[in-house]
Every structure is written in C-alpha cells, then in structure tokens.
Amino acid sequence: MNKSEFKTLLKAVPKTELHLHIEAVITLASVKKLYKKRHGTEMSKEDQVALFSYNDLNGFIQSFLKVQDLLISVEDFNLVFDDLGKYLDKNGICYCEAFFAPTAFIKKGFKYEEMVAIFKKNIDKIKAKYGITLKLLMDVSRTFGCENAMNNYNLLKQFPCEDIIGIGLGGAESKGPAKDYAPVYELALKEGYKAVAHAGEDVGPESIWDSINFLHAQRIGHGLTAIQDENLMAELKKTKLPIEICITSNTFTKKIVTKAKDHPVKKYYDRGILVTINTDDPVFFKTTLLDELWLCYKELNFTMDEIKELLKNSFKASFMPEKDKKEWCKKVDAAF
Questions:
Q1: Which end of the chain is more exposed for a tag (fewer CB within 10 A), N or C?
Q2: Helix 289-298 and helix 3-11: axis angle, to 10°?
C-alpha cells in the first residue's frame, strides 16, 4: 500500500489526538497574517526560515514562543482555532484533547477570562461545523517556574470552563524537574481536574518516575527515555499508564532518536504498554496525525491490525466518559 492509499483509508476511521499544542497547528498563511499585523510589514522568506530553524528541544521552544508573540490580541486566537478545526477535520479526528499555554499571553497583558471566552466560542464553532469534540488542557509550564504554574492554575479555578478539563506540564524539561510542580498537581487532582505531564522527552527516565510518583500524572507525554529503564518499562506495562508518543517531534529534537525507524514505540507496544500516536506540533515538525500513522506502518512495521489497536488506545487513554470510549472503539472496529 502506498502513502496516498494508506492516508485515504485511515482518514475514514474515527481518531482522537491527545498530545497537540493549539498554537502549533497554525498554518504558515496565518503566521504571515499575524506577522504583518504585529510588525506592519510582510514576512520575508528569511524570516520564515529563521522562525522554523532549530536543532534541539530548547531551540524549538524559543521558536514556539516567537509564534506566540505574533498574537497581539485575544481575537487573534480566532485564526488559531480556524486552523485547528481544519486540521482535525482533514485528519478524520473526531475527538481531541489539546494544550494551550497561557503564560506568554498573560505576560503580554492578555486577560485570561477574555482568552477563555474566545476559546469557548471557537470550541462550540468547531463542534457545530465539523461535529468534532475539543477539550483543552492548560500547560502550566515548567519554563517559568512553580510560582507561575500555581498562578496559572489559580486562573483555571477562578474562571472555570467546562471545555478546559485539566493541566499539563510542558516547556524546558531539563530546566524544570517534574517533582518541583507537585503542589500544583496535588491541588488540581484533589479538586477534580485531570493531570498529564511531558516527561522523558529531553531528560532520562527519572523524569518519568517523578511524574508518576510526585505528580501522579494520568498520562505521560513522550516518555521516550522509559526504554532506558527496565523497571520503568515493567511498571508502565503493569499500570497501563498511557504514553503520548510523538514520533516526528522526537526525531526533530534529536535528543534520543534521529530517525523514525529507530523510535522505541514498537518496543513499547510489543511489551504491552498503552501507547497512543500524536503529532505534538504539526506546523513546526511538518507532520499530521495521518503522517504519524504512516510512519508506524512504513518505518516501524506496525501491521494494520496493530494500527487499529493504536487508534483504539487513544480513545481508551482519553478523558472522555467510559461509555463513550467503548462506543468509539466499536466505531473503529466497524470502520476497519
């Protein structure tokens, strides 16, 4: 089967994505619009190249922050969500849990409650237009320290929204040990929010252990370095703690693997670990969910039956009600 045939077939199968940053689904056309609005001039080819040039995770984070800086009003989020809706529809994604990172915008003077109102309006619009359910997780961010993370969480509580269901910990992993954020996570879980964490992307398995033991994370983002710790692999198999795998992202940041065929996701799957397939940041890494699934088939030797299980894993690992998970898994089986 060639790539075009594969993507056509897989597009028709219900899918969910659980590790996706909303600002990183924005198209180049929208980036150019925001750049012109922000700087009063057209974005040059050199500017484009500079924006999307990075060699490691920290370099990527700096580019991510530059894209965030292009937004100068809460209304600019309308562009972001327009592109997000199109991306989800194009990839046959019926349910998504995506990250939003408020810190940079709050530091620029955006009012959190106005951001939430824009988010809610656009989430409802995506549901009405495409029939897609979108939920958000607040990235409290390790990049700016624990006090800032707690401030973000307090805003989440102060201005509740039914579509913002929990928190995540993204940012520069090497500069922000997961265990430092335990106070934020303890509060969030106690008060009924969901909690996930990026871990093992740029740091060894100890970061994953800390996310389990101190944050009590309900999913692990990336989890790439678990392969370095046999005890951790056994723990993940036993507990079925979901891992949000992002193959292309991991090869771009080059910390552990540089080629898709060397990614440990198939080893995780074969060991019985509950892995899900995601994109992380599509525009930055020039990928889509259908492209990631193609990598599983073409480069990592997943069979079509195993890819079906990967799709069902994502529904099982989501925070949707158990009844809905079972219904969607039946729909995946029916589509195959």
A1: N
A2: 130
